[in-house]
Design goal:
Protein name: Allene oxide synthase
Number of domains: 2
Family: Belongs to the cytochrome P450 family.
Keywords: Iron, Metal-binding
Structural class: mainly alpha
InterPro entries: Cyt_P450 (IPR001128), Cyt_P450_E_grp-IV (IPR002403), Cyt_P450_sf (IPR036396)
Distance between the termini: 29 Å
Number of helices: 11
GO biological process, one term: sterol metabolic process
Radius of gyration: 22 Å
Order of helices and strands: HHHHHHHHHHEEEEH
Length: 313
């Protein structure tokens, strides 16, 4: 959070600058071909943008990092996620050969060391802040920074943004036009974080995509004490030390909380009662279902009027 706060002044400008470069590259590809994939250009944009804003290091000063840094993160993330992520091959072969053991670090040690040395050399200001203000060693500061940068930021956005783009691109109700209109009317001459706060439809679309497709669907933790975990109609006794797994989609697509939980309603989080962006009243969902709980750690939320969420005792 300290890093985010300190870098907030350059987020908007770096975002626009690097997005412009990504769009120019895509247009250049399209001028020579009938189609272009946006996934790798998107990841390269994310890597450059997030590395500059979170670590203060500019990838352009190192050609190897500038060209392949995002692929280094991809391989490092894949090694950590493969034991838990379903890839759709014939069961039980997937569980036996892919999900039964941790993979050795040496497979990606070269990539990780390249990123480590880059941050050590070019992200000194942020690394020193970790040492002076938080009592970390240099090694701990760099490892923590790489985890936040690679896993939380780069990894999360690499999963979430394609879902967001797909939701907007496949909409048939004119959502793209409505989003463009709102952005042009409220964006001002220069994009800022404050101007984004004045774009309720854009915020609503982002929240609804997070609800349907959380970037990190599985979360694990060990109970620190004995407690009772309550659901809508049951209670489960959990003892200290037990391993718990939380599946975000069970929460965010709960039919007892959300009406038509599998459907994408881009106006769901829109703050007005009537009319909403579709020209219809918010009858099934919307603001007459006032917000009781809205939690976004890894995209977790619950929302329903009159519903008291389960408590841990």
């Amino acid at each position: 959070m300290d890093i985010l706060k300190r870098s907030s002044g350059i987020w908007a400008s770096e975002l626009v600058s690097n997005l412009d470069k990504m769009c120019d590259n895509l247009e250049s590809t399209l001028s020579n071909s009938s189609s272009a994939s946006y996934l790798f250009p998107l990841q390269q944009f994310l890597f450059t943008f997030l590395t500059k804003t979170l670590s203060g290091a500019d990838p352009s000063v190192d050609a190897k990092i500038a060209d392949g840094g995002y692929l280094m993160f991809d391989r490092w993330l894949a090694l950590q996620l493969l034991p838990t992520v379903p890839i759709g091959i014939l069961q039980p072969l997937e569980e036996i050969f892919l999900h039964s053991f941790a993979y050795p670090f040496f497979l990606v040690s070269g990539d990780y060391n390249n990123l480590y040395n880059f941050i050590k050399q070019h992200g000194k200001e942020v690394v020193n802040r970790g040492k002076l203000e938080f009592g970390l060693t240099e090694e701990e500061s760099i490892h923590n920074l790489l985890f936040v940068l690679g896993f939380n930021a780069f990894g999360g956005f690499s999963v979430f943004l394609p879902s967001l783009i797909d939701a907007i691109a496949t909409d048939t109700t004119g959502l793209q036009r409505k989003l463009a209109k709102e952005a042009r009317e409220n964006g001002g001459s220069t994009l800022t974080l404050n101007s984004v706060k004045d774009m309720p439809l854009i915020n609503s679309v982002v929240y609804e995509v997070l609800r349907l497709n959380p970037p990190v669907p599985l979360q694990y933790a060990r109970a620190r004490k004995d407690f009772t975990l309550s659901s809508h109609d049951s209670a489960f006794r959990v003892t200290k030390g037990e391993l718990l797994c939380g599946y975000q989609k069970l929460v965010m697509r709960d039919p007892l909380v959300f009406q038509e939980p599998e459907s994408f309603f881009f106006f769901f989080w829109f703050p007005t009662v009537s009319p909403n962006p579709t020209g219809q009243r918010l009858i099934r969902r919307g603001t007459e279902l006032h917000l009781r709980v809205c939690r976004w750690p890894m995209g977790c939320c619950m929302h329903k009027a009159g519903f008291e969420p389960p408590t841990l005792t």
